[in-house]
Write a structure and sequence with these properties.
Elements: H1 6-20, H2 40-48, H3 68-78, H4 80-100, E1 106-112, E2 125-133, H5 135-205, H6 211-246, E3 262-266, H7 271-275, H8 278-281, H9 283-304, E4 310-318, E5 327-332, H10 341-405, H11 411-446, E6 454-457
Antiparallel strand pairs: 1-2, 2-4, 3-6, 4-5
């Protein structure tokens, strides 16, 4: 008696399903990971083995204070936000895997048990079919190409976000250093005026000074202290910004390297030089190109999917008369209404959107770079102006101090000159910090690791000796 292949296939299919099932493992949420601090020993090792399209490996040593470049690398290695971004790699890899998987054959089985007045020799009818859809074979190559290009775009996009975080951490370190220098200036002025007010009150009691002079000293002292407290608040806020970028708890404070210099003038390369090869250096632009290539493959897959679904297979039936009727089976859709024209239109529109987005990003980047060069020139002039004004203000302070001792000037004029000198130094540090801001932004916009455009001067100025009149 012929043997049907359907029960055999059913047994094989059941065994395959049971053996191929993936187990479930729970991953409960926990806030413990948010409280972890970076292991500096591991960071030092990882920094020397660093692999990134732009950032370079370096000898990481935070024991002498964290430099801005070390802050950039530490942020890339320890920033919690980047961990979530890197998880996209696993998702993209899964999409590549899924795109290459062929569909499972489809198995159907039926059984018909005769009831009632059944003629002699009637048997139970059963049968089944095994079918396989050929449509996925037609567009499989295009789907795999799209997934692989999308995975490459994800890698580049992650590297671009790492680059942005690195530059933000470097910038935050420079800003914190600058604010500390400014706080030192403001504190020195406030301390001097505090001591001065104490001595003037004693002089008032002895009848040497007038109440008007004491009032002027107290007003200057209050203004200086208010300014000092404001800068100290900015220092604490900037420390929190840096800690967040470095993946540190809010109450942490890694010492910063104190030998860092701020630029007095920048002489960047020309616009033409910076734009040369821009589209191959900017990781986001390269990622957009890979995304466009992925969409091209997706359009191709959509066009291939307009062909009718073709399903082939075999069937085997035992009828009521105990006859076995095996044979091939083929089915196809009639492309009368649905020829995948809707999906084709969507994918083509998406491709056009990516094309226009890339064009706009290139256009905007070129204009941003040109604007940054103009800003650098303006800041160069501002730094030069404030530095030229410093010796004039210093001379005025000395002159008014001597005139005050001889009774030829008022204390109000002297305090105004002293405050203006400190304000000049703080403003000069602000302009120098803005030069660093602009330079780091220019590196980010052009995709260069470091633009050698700095003509440095010591960030910490010589200590000014304020004499009590």
């Amino acid at each position: 008696m012929p043997i049907s292949f359907v029960p055999v296939i059913l047994g094989v299919a059941l065994w395959t399903v049971l053996s191929a099932c993936t187990g479930y493992h729970a991953l409960p949420l926990s806030s413990d990971a948010a409280e972890e601090t970076p292991n500096m020993t591991r960071i030092r090792i990882a920094a020397q083995e660093f692999h990134h399209p732009i950032l370079k490996p370096l000898d990481f040593d935070d024991r002498d204070g964290l430099s801005p470049d070390e802050a950039a690398v530490l942020a890339v290695l320890a920033n919690p936000g980047l961990r979530a971004v890197r998880d996209q790699r696993a998702i993209a890899a899964g999409q590549v895997l899924q795109a290459g998987i062929l569909p499972n054959p489809r198995l159907t089985y039926f059984m018909s048990i005769p009831t009632g007045a059944v003629p002699v020799g009637t048997v139970t009818e059963f049968g089944g079919t095994v079918l396989w859809d050929l449509q996925t074979l037609i567009n499989r190559g295009a789907r795999v190409d799209a997934a692989e290009a999308r995975a490459e775009a994800v890698d580049l996009d992650i590297a671009w976000q790492e680059w942005q975080v690195a530059q933000a951490a470097k910038l935050a370190a420079y800003r914190l250093l600058t604010l500390r220098y400014q706080a030192q200036l403001a504190t020195e002025l406030s301390d001097f005026l505090t001591d001065n007010v104490t001595q003037m009150r004693q002089a008032l009691q002895r009848g040497i000074l007038t109440g008007l002079e004491l009032s002027a000293a107290e007003t200057a002292h209050n203004n200086a202290r208010t300014n000092m407290l404001e800068i100290e608040k900015q220092v604490r806020q900037q420390q929190l910004v840096l800690n967040r970028l470095l993946g540190l708890p809010p109450d942490s404070a890694i010492p910063l390297e104190r030998t860092v210099v701020l630029p007095a003038r920048l002489v960047p390369p020309t616009l033409e030089w910076l734009l040369d090869g821009l589209e191959d250096r900017r990781l986001d632009l390269v990622a957009l190109r890979q995304g466009y290539a992925s969409q091209e493959a997706t359009v191709r897959a959509a066009i291939l999917s307009q062909f009718s679904n073709i399903t082939i297979g075999f069937y085997d039936v035992r009828d009521l008369g105990n006859f076995y009727r095996p044979g091939p089976q083929i089915s196809t859709d009639l492309p009368i209404f649905n020829r995948n024209q809707g999906n084709i239109a969507i994918e083509r529109a998406t491709r056009q959107k990516l094309f226009d987005e890339y064009t706009n990003r290139v256009f905007q980047t070129r204009n941003d770079i040109a604007k940054l060069l103009v800003t650098i020139q303006w800041l160069n002039d501002q730094v030069a102006t404030t530095q030229a004004g410093k010796p004039i203000l210093q001379k005025l302070v000395v002159t008014l101090r001597e005139a005050l001792r001889q009774g030829q000037a008022t204390v109000v004029l002297y305090y105004n000159a002293l405050i203006n000198l400190t304000a000049n130094q703080i403003q000069n540090l602000t302009y120098q910090q803005q030069l660093i801001d602009t330079l780091i932004t220019l590196e980010l916009e052009t995709g260069y690791y470091r633009i050698q455009a700095i003509q440095p001067t010591p960030a910490r100025r010589p200590r000014e000796e304020h004499q009590i009149p």
